UniProtKB/TrEMBL annotation:
Organism per entry: plant metagenome
GO function term, MF aspect, one: ATP binding
Gene3D superfamilies in the record: 2.40.50.100, Nucleic acid-binding proteins (2.40.50.140), P-loop containing nucleotide triphosphate hydrolases (3.40.50.300)
Region forming the signal peptide: none
InterPro entries assigned to the protein according to its UniProt record, in alphabetical order: AAA+_ATPase, ABC_transporter-like_ATP-bd, ABC_transporter-like_CS, ABC_transpr_MalK/UgpC-like, Mo/tungstate-bd_C_term_dom, NA-bd_OB-fold, P-loop_NTPase
Protein name: Glycerol-3-phosphate ABC transporter, ATP-binding protein UgpC (TC 3.A.1.1.3)
Matching SUPFAM superfamilies: MOP-like, P-loop containing nucleoside triphosphate hydrolases
Keywords: ATP-binding, Cell membrane, Membrane, Nucleotide-binding, Translocase, Transport
Domain ABC transporter positions: 11-245
Gene Ontology CC annotations of this record: ATP-binding cassette (ABC) transporter complex, substrate-binding subunit-containing
Claim: Heme is one of the keywords in the record: no
């Protein structure tokens, strides 16, 4: 952490790998973060997000790969020489210090003793406390705080610094929904106006898309996709990404293509699927047998279960959840759960038969063996 204004630097990570025993935590990871850019790394628990943060900040050593901040290769440097401000998921607050002093502690560390005058420290601390709505708790100690309040103290202690790179590990994960929604916008506005890049780790892909300029989808220690939030939402690279993106996530329907009397039949769980001529034409040109159809709940409709229309799948009501502006209906189709966002007020008993209508256009096709999206879609 430095006291002067930072020089804009790009983080460049190449071929970063780390194994713990028999577990490959990261495998050949590569990414960049430009000055002022917010890059969210999203994936399920165990994807490698926290391991990546520890490698970048120098708390773990990589087995292979390079980490550069600007012109410096930093993978061999100790943490205090990397100029990285890292907010840890574990908070790690000083129990004997109050909120104000916990936040100010990086500015008063022996490395920087006397370099920042007390008035400047107070101003910077007060600014980040106000940003996170913690000003009224400045005099309390950690034992007097809730879990969400402790998280905000840890966040403030990171944001008060002037590093070359910010790493925020689940910075708002313990907050209530309303405060989380407010703070992610406020923090995004602040970080986006800075010269430094920010890496934001979260298991919530919706949060990642709300805060980031670009999103890295990390699954099983490997980067599955990097792109803008819009690109990842509209065209997930594979079914592992499709299952994580959106609220709710994309509907995925396993299908098998079989040949009969010179034509190809589309089946799900052994039952024939009535597809539109356009979808049938796309599937007929494919060489294999196993595929997955993907379509978003917001473009999925419900209809009469006996409908003979194309693109209608027969199922039964599994759950009906009203959300004010819309109702989320989950239907079961031979054990596969499909969801539709429909108009408010929809009601149907559980187990009732229902038709699920796929959208006429925009259905994505994934390889049933690899999970990868097919090209030219």
């Amino acid at each position: 952490m430095r006291t002067s204004e930072p020089v804009p630097m790009t983080l460049a990570v190449d071929d970063l790998s780390k194994r713990f025993g028999t577990t490959q935590a990261l495998d050949g990871l590569a990414l960049t973060v430009a000055p002022g850019e917010i890059v969210a790394v999203s994936g399920p628990s165990g994807a490698g997000k926290s391991t990546l943060g520890r490698l970048l900040s120098g708390l773990e050593s990589a087995d292979r790969g390079e980490i550069r901040l600007g012109s410096r290769a930093i993978q061999g440097l100790p943490p205090q020489q990397r100029a990285v401000a890292h907010m840890f998921e574990s908070f790690a607050l000083y129990p004997t210090l109050n909120v104000f002093d916990n936040v100010a502690s990086p500015l008063r560390s022996p490395m920087h003793a006397g370099r920042i005058d007390p008035a400047s420290i107070a101003e910077r601390v007060e600014n980040v406390l106000a940003l996170t709505q913690m000003s009224h708790l400045a005099g309390r100690r950690p034992a007097e705080l809730s879990g969400g309040q402790k998280q905000r103290v840890a966040l403030c202690r990171t944001l008060v610094q002037t590093p070359d790179l910010f790493i925020l590990d689940e910075p708002i994960g313990h907050l209530d929904a309303k405060l989380r929604h407010t703070l992610r916008g406020d923090i995004r506005a602040r970080q986006g106006a800075l010269a430094q890049g920010t890496l934001w780790f979260t298991p919530d892909a919706v949060e990642a898309m709300a805060v980031a300029d670009r999103v890295v989808m990390l699954v099983g220690g490997r980067v599955r996709q990097i792109g803008t939030p819009r690109d990842i939402y509209l065209r997930p690279a594979d079914t592992s990404v499709a299952r994580l993106v959106g609220d709710p996530a994309m509907n995925l329907l396993d299908i098998t293509l079989t040949s009969s009397d010179g034509s190809r039949e589309i089946r799900h769980a052994g039952d024939a699927v009535r597809a539109s001529p356009a979808l049938r034409a796309r599937l007929a040109a494919l060489p294999g047998e196993r595929y997955v159809l993907g379509f978003p709940p917001m473009h999925t409709q419900l209809c009469a279960p006996a409908s003979a229309e194309a693109d209608v799948l027969p199922g039964e009501i599994y759950a009906v959840e009203p959300f004010g502006k819309y109702t989320l209906v989950t239907a079961s189709l031979a054990g596969t759960l499909l969801r539709a966002k429909v108009a408010p007020g929809y009601a149907a008993p559980l187990g009732a038969p229902v038709g699920i209508r796929m959208p006429e256009s925009g259905v994505l096709i994934f390889d049933g063996d690899t999970g990868s999206i097919l090209p030219d879609q």
